[in-house]
Write a structure and sequence with these properties.
Six copies of one chain form a homohexamer. With 238 residues, chain A is α+β, with helices and mostly antiparallel strands. Chain A is built from six helices and nine strands. In chain A, the strands form two sheets. The first copy, chain A, has a five-stranded mixed sheet. Chain A has a four-stranded antiparallel sheet with strand order 7-6-8-9. The two termini of chain A are 35 Å apart. The A-B interface holds A 21-24, 27, 34, 36, 38, 40, 42, 44, 62, 64, 66-73, 76-79, 81-83, 87, 113, 115, 117, 119-121 and B 21-24, 27, 34, 36, 38, 40, 42, 44, 62, 64, 66-73, 76-79, 81-83, 87, 113, 115, 117, 119-121. Chains A, B, C, D, E, F: This is Ribonuclease PH. Chains A, B, C, D, E, F: Belongs to the RNase PH family. Chains A, B, C, D, E, F: Phosphate binds at residues 86, 124-126.
Chain lengths: 238, 238, 238, 238, 238, 238
């Protein structure tokens, strides 16, 4: 039995709100149950030094958690003067995920930065960030098309992410915080709209897991991502 | 004529939403027109080293701006590894303002941290932070009373803040970003519910200002703070 | 009764010594009683990146306190690896004050940095820094004129600063350390030679202050600045 | 055809040299072809603050790369003043992997730090670090047993790691640098001696990968880890 | 011929002014010609962690250079967020020199910090720091004796330092900046009042130097230190 | 009697292994008894900003110690976020020593960085670094000659370094760790192949030393360096 009474293969309620703030070229609030992440896309008309003159663009991501997004206050990274290893790991993951579905040459010599800031955390913030940031990225590229700066949107496919895990012996989809902090295996799967796997990160927190368990978990994740892609489509259609 | 068509003594629409997030002891979204700041209050049952064993509590504040809260993206302080001078100045101001209306001895040996994070900026973020943080602080203290940890709320009076300035030669109340970036004098006034001045910071961006101008500006601010205190009361009554 | 036996409207002895060190384009030791600040002006023939090619100059300030300028040794900021919020707040204030009285276009594409280093502290170091730095700035500009690099001194007016406050219930001018650490209200006022207000920063350390108190304090400050401007004139005439 | 002429399922030559340096409680040089990592285990008789008094030990890891371990010199992290996100990601991975096979309660209130320093890099440094660090950890625990500080070695099983990937369309085992920098999918698999999966991290550098490809890759990795575990056993028996 | 017209074995004018500032337990301005260093000694009634409970005290030093102590402004270390290698090297040298002549056991469990801040630089600032800091240290210990905290001054002997070098082929004593920046060999010698060598640091900036040259340089330094010790004695007697 | 049973004028066994790693232009493992330092030379085809366009090259050095190179683990500088003063002092020394024997103009506008990383420490790491780095530097320059980028090797002479000291009252050559941590005087001498002194750094850890002792120590060092230069020659001839 899951603490939230959800079925093993049931996602939390997903809500994707576009135009949550007004300055960014793409601005999306994504909610997965009580997890809420603000994802903004900012377009800059230049690229980082290592790409100058190479005729292609770049997509990168930064991730942050408001100090009191969590049950107990965590210290502010800006005040401590450095980002934790966890933060850096997550923002690298988000960047890789998004770059896997955009044609960087078609983007031209510009950079899009996705800022994913967690306003409230209840597990699964890195997956929600990827799913929400994709919408913000798509929106920002659309504005470049509308402004006549690009002939077509260079985003080639959807990308979304979901966590799965083994909780009290059973495989479950979309772990919330109570599950996440008490599970045996935790796996994040990033997939495209076409169903290709872009990234898989599975960790045994307790007992090692087996090939069979892994297979069931990826099945669950595939199901979850399919729902998330549908939610992205609805959000863009709205 | 103000860009927003407001009267010289007209505040922007003020909205104070309590319980905006669920983990913090106090959580308030304050909106002054398009400026939106999330203020959370976090209670910790200990005090910083310099106060240990002194039989009193402490109230402190931290301030941050999401990278794309502004028209163009500003770099993330956590990524740069340090807070700007502006950020430090603002968080020191918020802390002083709140400490002026709370009985720290009555609070006991605990610390309350107010995190003010700007989700969207359109001028006046430090004033909005003070006004919103006061509500979050009050709420957090109320919970301590409800939990039987304090006999009475140690917050003795309201405190709120507003900016005033001389824009195109005329004194105006509550500057928004277009006014703020093009005014001659910019003044932030922090006042209590009883009308006492807690802090005044006036800066001539262009021409120096006179005693008379200063007097008119403080009148306007007094009016503005009165409205803000009423908004705080409504929010608490809701 | 003031600890120093001064009258409420009496400044400490002001001494401004030019050419205190030999390398800087302007070098001034200012003493306000036991407070001693070394202010040097350094001219560089280029401007910071944000001003390049804009046809104007820049004036900026840095502030430091020697570790044992104070009663007990404070740790060295260079050793800790960062400047405190207080230091940053003060150096921003000094920079703004000086920029308010210089014609940056007339200065041309060069930068003048004012270093204000406190050799001995007895209250009022930020105000002494502004008053002393103005002399160093003027002197540095004069050398540019003498060297034929500028047709006329771009400094348009004096600027000086003084603290006022409410000590044991009475308004007093030019707080020294014993007063500063035990006063109800502390206000720093920056004014031009013509009497315009450039910056006012008032803080209630204890009880909030009233409009009437504020008015008396600004009167006292006006008086104080007038004396300081005279001291600046004497120093330049010497 | 692989650049190294190896068969798709062929590991590079593995060499594990114990007692490579003399001060550490465990000191192992692991070589996977031209990749060489020095892994040392250091025992300290206390635990980090978050574990004090909890009756258990801790195992953690740090990772570094000598500036010229690589084809072109990379800058020294100590000189830059911070570790890259990649470094932090790797050292977190090594720590998790090792903790998965040690009984931390049986270790008692002591910490073992595994330092993995890459002397020469040719791909697969994080996997080599895990495989080598396990030997150093085992050795350090053995010394605690010999010294009578522990009744039995708390390491419960082997753990080793290997990279697999899709290179020029074909699944291959143990990527070297030329393969790693030109592959479509790169996957690191951490497994125990009993064959359980502890961690799996797969990333599509180019095209997304399929369930079937993933399955073949995990088969290859299982084979590779089996060889590595045998190499660990030989090294301990030597 | 030396730029300053001095004889090869002639020191610059030495001036040691005690009580230059009022808060420190020892406060000395030392001038070697145009080089001016403020040396303060601060006594704290505890020792650094590595000495706690060992029944002895500690003497340490910090060194800084005001940004415009030099011909062209150098950037402020506090603003850059770190001390240069040169600064660290010098403060380590000053600390070692002073510790060589004090009985740390007799000092008891307290620490004396010597802050050496260069107000104006014209070569030889590290040597002047040592010579001046010794006087400040002696003075601070004397106050501990006068306060009844120590039975006798734990400083056992004088220590002073001087630079020597080979300038235009000739050995000279006490290099000033024009000589220092254009010499072949630069040597700093730290000696006790009894004539023992505490530290010698010689560097060939151009051609390597010979045993014979080294011998002549140490002779010159011995002479110089003898004069400096006399100056220290006069300062203490004043 | 020395702990190692060596004669007072006996070096530890010196071993210089070239091509210890494969990527660097010069790669040398130097062993002085149990002290082992990996020295690599990296050539870059540009110079640091302060030398651009000056028609000369630059040689610089960085130094590091693996955390468990020592008896007890020391913390990793990259993790702490800064290099110690000792590290900076050593790397500055290595750089100066090498620059003293290379014709920087003949090197052309390129920079060679010597990375000296201590794999195992038993005293004398800075001296071993200089002696080993010289071989790596020579080798890297040789490769530039072989590649036709330089007409001749710009290294003009050997340079090597050795420590000497007064241990239990007697002058000894090449201190190992047990001697180094218990000696009265410790001196590092850097000399050229021609016998010129490039750098001498002597420190009295206990009693000050005399002119006579200094003379004996330099004699010993001269002897030691002669052996080291021979070892460098053998290594290059191999």
């Amino acid at each position: 039995m899951r603490p939230s009474q959800r079925q093993p293969d049931q996602l939390r309620t997903v809500r994707i709100t576009r135009n949550f703030t007004r300055h960014a070229e793409g601005s999306v609030l994504i909610e997965m149950g009580d997890t809420r992440v603000l994802c903004t896309a900012s377009v800059e008309e230049n690229v980082p030094p290592f790409l100058r003159g190479k005729g292609q663009g770049w997509v990168t991501a930064e991730y942050g958690m408001l100090p009191r997004a969590t049950h107990t206050r965590s210290s502010r990274e800006a005040a401590k003067g450095k980002q934790t290893g966890r933060t850096q790991e997550i923002q690298r993951l988000i960047g890789r995920a998004l770059r896997s579905v955009i044609d960087l040459k078609a983007l031209g010599e510009r950079q899009i930065t996705l800022d994913c800031d967690v306003l409230q955390a209840d597990g699964g913030t890195r997956c929600a960030s990827i799913t929400g940031a994709w919408v913000a990225l798509y929106e920002a590229c659309d504005k470049l098309v509308q402004a006549g700066k690009l002939p077509a949107n260079p985003v080639r496919d959807h990308v979304a992410a979901i966590s799965v895990g083994i909780y009290k012996g059973a495989p479950v989809l979309d772990l919330d915080y109570p599950e996440d902090s008490d599970c045996d295996t935790d796996m994040n799967v990033v997939m495209t709209g076409a169903g290709g796997i872009v990234e898989i990160q599975g960790t045994a927190e307790g007992e090692p897991f087996t090939r069979e368990q892994m297979s069931v978990l990826v099945d669950l994740a595939t199901l979850g991502v399919r729902h998330l892609v549908a939610a992205q489509q609805s959000a863009l259609a709205a």
